Amino acid sequence: MNFILTTYIYPIDKEIPISSRFSFYLDNPRTEEEIQLVTSYLEKSMNSPAEFYQDGWNANLPIHITEETKDYVSVESTLQNFEENYSKVDKYVEQFFKNNKGKSILEKIARMWIVGRFDDEGHFESMKITNKEMQERGERGFIMLDKGNPVVDNSNKLTNFSHLISLLLHTEGTDYFGKSFFLHQEHLSLQELKIDRFLNQTILTFAFKSHTSEIHHEQERWLSIPHIKEDLIRLSNELDSIIDESNEDKILFVSNLLKIAREEIKDSRYKLVTLISIIELLLTHSPNYQRFNVEDSISKQFKLKTSILVYQNNKEIDLGWLKNRLRDIYNQRSNIAHGNFKELEKYLEKEVKKLDPKENTLNWSNEVLKDTILDSLISDVYSFIRAIMEEYIKDRKMVEYLKEN
């Protein structure tokens, strides 16, 4: 098994399944080699003062409590707070700190860091052996991995799948824009020791959470593994129960599109079209082009089928609003896909004029306000994809019937 870092820091007594079908699990580093790998990465990222100053980066926490840092938050004081607050509600946390009393500060963090495991079918170990043999012979070289190698394929599947899990698990409501609970998207990230600003920010967030074991805002619940664990296990089991040979490629493709939309696409227009394509993939079929206008037919399918499933998912939704929203979303998708950017601009200008100027307390420019209009469309599309996937999990046959008819 190989692993990739997540954004969760918490000691767990046993692995948590993400997908038993694909052999994806959340776990802590267990072997000394794994613990040392994460500790070394933390040491470089958290404890390289000369490079911090050189880069003008100083948002990392000091590691130890010293005379200089005693009045500030440090990694050591964070662990003290965490132990005090979480040991009261989780006996394993209490046991963890007893078992690791003599370990260094960063090693404790490494042992607590939650990683996502995937099956590399022994290829990574094989590469290490090959590399060692080459060094012993005095040879230089490198090993290239391509598509089809389990290290590449299964690590990509893991990070892709995490975006689908995150879409279904998150508690952020309309503030969700596709982020995953994985810190890294590449399986080799830990091999390159560097100052990792996202890792340092994750530890800073962990410091804030260490002060209490309670969640005060529902939007933040999914960011805390002890509070979301049971939901994650339930969701994992539900997904495993509806994935088989006939739909596995489709589910993995949707997962990949979700990751691409979040991690690779910066243009909001491109992102909107990509996300809408997920709904089209799940719900629309190719019409008979001899009988129907293809664009018009797919537009009607998109709006009708999406509205049926979104309403089925939430019967309190305003159907009038939903009808108009789906119309606007698909119209802008068509404007972007066909290069009608003037029409898109007209729509955005019209929507900006509807905004209450009193609410623009930051005095945002029209261009920024237009970006927020596009972001609002994207947020709603994420919500609709989630609703469709939830209904697919509940009744796959019904959703597939709806797609084909």
UniProtKB/TrEMBL annotation:
Domain of life: Bacteria
Protein name, per record: Apea-like HEPN domain-containing protein
